[in-house]
Amino acid sequence: MSRTHEVPTTAPNQIARPPLGQILALEELDRDLFLGHSYNDSAFRIYGGQAVGQALVASGRTVSPDRRVHSLHSHFLHPGNPKAPVIYHVDRVRDGGSFTTRNVRATQDGLTIFQLTASYQRRESGLSHQSVETTATPPEELPDFEDSLSPDELRGARPWLDVLRRNIAIEFRFPEEYPRVANARGEARPPCQRAWVRTSEVLDEDPVVQAAGFGYVSDLFLLSSALPPHGITIDEPGLQLASLDHSVWLHSEFRADEWHLYEQEGLWMGGGRGLARGHLFDRAGTLVATTMQEGLLRLRR
Questions:
Q1: Highest taxon of the source (predicted)?
Q2: Predicted structure pTM score
Q3: How far apart are CA 185 and CA 232, in angstroms?
Q4: Among 53, 61, 97, 108, which has the minimal tally of Cβ within 10 Å of its Cβ?
Q5: Which tens digit of pLDDT belongs to each residue from 43-85?
């Protein structure tokens, strides 16, 4: 099901989200040099998915349109300042017969805050299978997150939920209880969570922008899937949480502004770090993307 509105609307009791279309519309400064903005003065640091999405757009602007991004690997090096622009420097590493490789370096005030390598491939057909399957209640049949909570749970969730909605342009609905709610009650859960996700506004038809839209979405909730077994949330006093590296494999083309089911699993924690994996499925249960992320999860009582 596609959305037909062109401009996101905000009801009086809702919080306006960042303008993702503008965020992904980079300004070209020179050959292989692009400028990005956050359009958000309320955040303390740049959302990791924004850096992924903008860097992917920068790389895609230097690639032949007959090639599609199939993987990206990135590292978060320093917190970005959302009040300042980011310059994206693209290095044309390789243009082969089937594959194209680009490196992107994001800087602020001369400091490299983020770097990404993206690989593009000429369209090909071949053998196919997937080893994972899933089903879930369709998003239209699920309540908004606020409506799924008790009054006490909503009061506890309101501070972080308002910050999330104010700073990240993603809509989400949970087919089961979000483990963070159980953790807030002091209850442990398995290291798994699922959410239907889509960008909060319709994006440009450009395949690069749609891929970048999922790059933006892919960082949401992922690392926190390692916390449920420990019965704590990211608001736990003394917990330091930050993404260190992030990888995405795009198995087919899809629209990031349409609902997809994002299943996440916290595979491991130790040494102050955690490792999480994500699978993204379309409505038919087809696996369209896979993600992995390692991050800092350091608890100091």
A1: Bacteria
A2: 0.95
A3: 9
A4: 97
A5: 999 999 999 999 999 999 999 999 999 999 999 999 999 999 9
